[in-house]
Write a structure and sequence with these properties.
Structural class: alpha/beta
Shape: elongated
Low-confidence stretches: none
Distance between the termini: 43 Å
Largest sheet: 8 strands, mixed
Oligomer: single chain
CATH superfamily of the largest domain: Vaccinia Virus protein VP39
Number of domains: 2
CATH topology of the largest domain: Rossmann fold
Order of helices and strands: EHEEHEEHEHEEHHEHEHEEHEHEE
Radius of gyration: 22 Å
CATH class of the largest domain: Alpha Beta
Strand content: 15-25%
Mean pLDDT: 96
Number of helices: 10
Number of strands: 15
Helix content: 25-40%
């Protein structure tokens, strides 16, 4: 194996490369990044033992900008029309796997490969099982074989461990936009719940009757999600809220600046999608936790056009500093979600 491939949003290759390079240095792994603008993936090139050491020392969930990753060799150029047989012959260095996934990068050009990927999955799995390169039944406890098409005759063949990778093969959770939601931004909060909160804990941590505060709520995309979970919501925004939400009786609208509002009573949840500078939002989010105004928070940081990775690090440093002074223990994590654009989503949770 010669490289670690990291999938990302198109246009965020530089941030993905900077992050994995930093983490590799911290793990004592020596390698370098190769990438091209707008290709939606990054390659970290290193010797095989260095790559294995890297994925052993770095938890995938700690990565902000990478959607998925896997170890693989160089690009394989397929010859002839029988792609299944050609791929089956490129298994050197691949351990026995429990399942196979065939994906493509998330670009407009690569979407044309979607039908090809789906059509090859079944035949390839059958071929590999006959050769004992794939378990008879799906097994999530052993590595997953990853095949990524770059073009119709160019693929990367690799693997990752499912307990240290994204559970969605291409790193994308596809959600349908609800017809009655006030805005498409509602999907950002829904995806955040799927990423940051294990589904088995939804009943406990997203339960009916909880108190929630939505900073920068108008027109109500995130409030809509909270209402659907049967929470009582304080919507904070000088702008108007969608009438249907107000008619539920679960929403109290405060026409106040989200940066000036402070709750009269502790909330279970605070969510925030305000279009302000990331450092300003980060500071306010940290203050909410330091003041013990909520138990959990999900928020977006709108990133600048340049030096985005550096800006994220500044925000994290400031938040850690503010929370540390409070003496409270708070879990903090970030992710560039599929429904995010020029922003990342943060999650804070008070430890008791």
């Amino acid at each position: 194996m010669t490289q670690l491939v990291l999938l990302c949003r198109q246009g965020f290759e530089a941030e993905t490369a900077a992050e994995i390079q930093d983490l590799a240095s911290q793990a004592g792994c020596f390698g370098y990044c190769k990438t091209k603008n707008d290709q939606a993936w990054v390659s970290f090139v290193a010797e095989d033992h260095q790559l294995k050491q890297l994925v052993e020392h770095v938890r995938f969930r700690s990565l902000i900008f990478a959607r998925q990753w896997f170890i693989c060799g160089d690009v394989v150029h397929l010859s002839g029309e029988d792609r299944v047989s050609a791929i089956s012959q490129e298994m050197d260095g691949i351990p026995h796997c429990g399942e196979v996934e065939i994906i493509h990068v998330d670009t407009n050009e690569a979407k044309a490969l979607s039908r090809l990927c789906k059509s090859l999955t079944g035949p390839l799995a059958a071929s590999l099982r006959k050769k004992n390169r794939l378990s008879a039944k799906r097994n999530h406890k052993i590595p997953r074989l990853m095949i990524m098409f770059l073009e119709g005759k160019e693929v990367l063949v690799g693997y990752h461990f499912t307990d240290n990778a994204c559970k969605w093969p291409d790193g994308i959770l596809h959600l349908k936009s609800p017809k009655d939601a006030p805005s498409r931004s509602t999907l950002k909060l829904e995806e955040a719940w799927h990423w940051f909160i294990p589904k088995r804990q939804w009943g406990e941590r997203l339960s009916a009757g909880m108190r929630a505060v939505d900073l920068g709520a108008a027109p109500g995309g995130w409030t809509w999600q909270l209402v659907k979970r049967s929470m009582m919501v304080e919507a904070i925004d000088n702008g108007p809220m969608k009438g249907d939400l107000m008619e539920t009786g679960q929403v109290t609208h405060h026409e106040v600046d989200g940066f000036k509002f402070s709750p009269s009573k502790k909330a279970h949840w605070m969510v925030c999608d305000m279009a302000e500078s990331p450092i300003k939002v980060a500071e306010r989010m940290a203050q909410w936790m330091a003041n013990d105004w909520c138990s959990e928070a999900i928020f977006n940081l709108k990133l600048p056009m340049k030096k985005r990775y550096q800006e994220v690090q500044k925000c994290i440093e400031l938040m850690n500093e503010i929370i540390a002074k409070s003496g409270l223990e708070v879990e903090m994590s970030f992710k560039h979600l599929y429904h995010d654009r020029e922003e990342i989503t943060g999650h804070l949770r008070r430890r008791y």
